[in-house]
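Forum: Protein Structure Q&A
Topic: Joint prediction for protein chains with partners

I've read a bunch of threads here and the consensus seems to be that you should model interacting components together rather than docking separate models afterwards. I'd like to see that in practice. Below is the full input, 1016 residues plus whatever partners are listed. Could one of the regulars post the assembled result?
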Amino acid sequence: MNEGAFDRIRNEQFRGKIVSAEEAASWIQDGMKLGLSGFTRAGDAKAVPTALVNKAKTESFKVDVYTGASLGPEVDQYMAEANIINKRWPFQADPLMRKKINAGEIIYVDQHLSHTAELVRSGLIGPIDFAIVEAMAITEEGLIIPTTSVGNSAIYVEHAKHVIIELNVSHPSELEGIHDIYIPAKQGEREPIPLTKVDQRIGTIGISVDPDKVVGIVVSYQPDAPSTIVPPDEETALMANHFLQFLREEVKSGRLTEELAPLQSGVGSIANAVLSGFLNSEFSELEIYSEVLQDAVFDLMDAGKVKYASGCSFTLSEEKGYQVYENIEKYRDQLILRPQELSNHPEIIRRLGLISINTALECDIYGNVNSTHISGTKMMNGIGGSGDYARNARLGIFLTKSIAKNGKISSIVPFVSHVDHTEHDVDVIVTEQGYADLRGLAPKERAQKIIDNCAHPMYRPQLQAYFDEALEQTGGHQTPHNLDKAFTWYTNLAKKGTMLDTVFEVVQ
Amino acid sequence: MNEGAFDRIRNEQFRGKIVSAEEAASWIQDGMKLGLSGFTRAGDAKAVPTALVNKAKTESFKVDVYTGASLGPEVDQYMAEANIINKRWPFQADPLMRKKINAGEIIYVDQHLSHTAELVRSGLIGPIDFAIVEAMAITEEGLIIPTTSVGNSAIYVEHAKHVIIELNVSHPSELEGIHDIYIPAKQGEREPIPLTKVDQRIGTIGISVDPDKVVGIVVSYQPDAPSTIVPPDEETALMANHFLQFLREEVKSGRLTEELAPLQSGVGSIANAVLSGFLNSEFSELEIYSEVLQDAVFDLMDAGKVKYASGCSFTLSEEKGYQVYENIEKYRDQLILRPQELSNHPEIIRRLGLISINTALECDIYGNVNSTHISGTKMMNGIGGSGDYARNARLGIFLTKSIAKNGKISSIVPFVSHVDHTEHDVDVIVTEQGYADLRGLAPKERAQKIIDNCAHPMYRPQLQAYFDEALEQTGGHQTPHNLDKAFTWYTNLAKKGTMLDTVFEVVQ
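Posted by a regular:
Agreed with the consensus. Here's the joint model:
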């Protein structure tokens, strides 16, 4: 299945460019800006980052790291550990990097994932000194064929001064042809993006590059780090049921057909688990238009439930990844990987009318969502693409378990400690307790529904007491709050180890 | 200039349908849903609402009122006063209605202005019992020609069970031809919207309607209520200068050309005043792609600075309105009015790369913006189109004076009491003190810049103290906060009448 590196460089101009990772790393200097391939641990450059970590043992330098999204350990763990990252854009999800970010040691710009490419194109980000992108082949025409993600690779290659290709021969050659690279022109000069169907191809199978910019090709053999998701559990199964129940009501009302609408599902275990819920549902002929394609998408393909999936990466568990690669011929005709600018583009999201499913850290009684900050201050991962989708989709659905840490934390709170998605963008909240359909409701209507349907029973009286008191104090304002008490849930958690007020403990 | 009503009904099928406003009002029953024309006091139905207010003297009923945006006094003041509005969507800006909303007497759904049409189309809003739309003519083909706004009229007419037309002969016949009505198909079935230039026409000059649905035509003579904006002042002049300075830096850096990019400017005095700033600038050949076109747009046309303006309404002061109507021939070739779904469409906003200017009630040190709620609970107007623009534009710029109520209120606070625009969408904040370009900055970088450049000097030490303490307490978390103190500024304001802490008063 795997050919040698030389066979995969099918254009003469590129063949003489093979260098060691160490040599490539030696070109990278303090203060440089690197545009790396990779999206949610998939298709990331690995060899040069590893060489940079080694180089850091004898040389002091820092670089700015721009990527598609979170990368595997070579960048987001080892480079962070080696203290060679100054600034990191636009998403990460690594425990060690997170620690460094929250210690003020790495500057982190948390950004809508469709926005980064526009900022590179406009010149705000840049100039990128080196684009370092993983590829599985270089075609006769000199196109770079990406691997398991497209992410921002095409835009970095276009705008970088120099390009380093990591030719990773661990990827099967059958991946070639699943990518569709389309790069919009500058804002104000571009045409409508012609995409109207999930399975439509509008670009090329690889990334165009000026061969003179390619200064080195590093051969690599290292597979992607497997995803870190955990399997569905009892609570995610309940959430999946509530979500399916909501969809059934939409079909019954005539607002959706049996084929639903293209689905987007956010990164992580909960969104993956809820998507898995379709396995045991009556729905089939599903289409996926998402950023990362996780295990559930391929499980649904195996079950004949998904007819087509478009994403900008696939990030799989070790087991699923192995199975998919062994049977890549079977999947490839149902798959497209696009640049994240396309997978997350408001134009396409709105046109196709996606059903968007993302995970919240916490929601408040008015439907505002915190996706990023623990107790309002500590960065968890980042907003990712959730804002691209929730604002522009047909349905912006957020998932969260109603409690965390054995009930010490309620994920439904009076006032979220950080707002990533405002009440205007949050259509439905799903917890294991039930779902709240918030569309067309005013804040006070929303509050009662969220408390009744989504909060954990142990926290309902405390939430109701907050809401009732705020309602009375304000005399019925549009959004009743008691700002004196709005954040006491977090200060209680910090001081007493639980959000639960003593007075309500009896209700448990 | 004005012909009689009969001459303006150029299709035979419609001529027998003239009824009195009272008769039309008699059809409207308790519990009905009305879809009204009008956007920011322009082109609203006036006669039937007035008749409904009269009818309420002898009959008890309530209706749900869906519009484009805020309407003139006939609906948002008098109907509110008469207690005949149950639910109001998606925007209002009337002092009396606001009072009723914050007393819990009117249910108010505050919504992104591009979203309402999608919800009507999907069936979530509806069925609309009566669409009541102002028109200036009905063409030979039976097209309804709107007046000074398009708003949501076309979608309400399409989806209503019955249509009442208010034929308002106070509008000059030369308005005909300035509208461009394009209605996207359902999500998932639509083509790309072909609009790539501000001055491009992609639709028809009027709204198609099934003549059988038109149950009555009410003749009206009442002009639009003039806008309530106040003229530029010393502070808005400073804000305009800072804004222009920011644009000059963008041109210098090569990120913008001298022609800039199409401008959107939000409703209200401050955005209008800042737009006026272009009068005394080197910039010309400007294009406007906005929702409401206010006085400044026409002043800039008069000065030869604006070559084309596309909006969904124009809302003018009495004086400017008179001048524009007297010279409508001069303006009409530089104007298009579109449905608000088009003026505010993420697809178009992103494609054209708008420079978006909207007003904030307050901003926090991390760049989150409150556009809607006074002290977090009381609704002011609503989010309007600001979210459609800020998320999807090239540049999301927010304006606010740094203090209000003679310094008792700081518009720069530690943590906004309501979030309408998150840090991810706020690129630049402008106050009379200066501007903060937040693009590509992490939260701690943003905080220092906002405090230094935008806060009023009397509040800078207090903001700095909050930030420094939060930084120390968290040890440098991504977004330092002290949640115990985050909202004390509002509780101080409520208790002591000022946000200013005694300890910092000396600094004034």
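Chain A touches chain B through 82 residues (CB under 8 Å).
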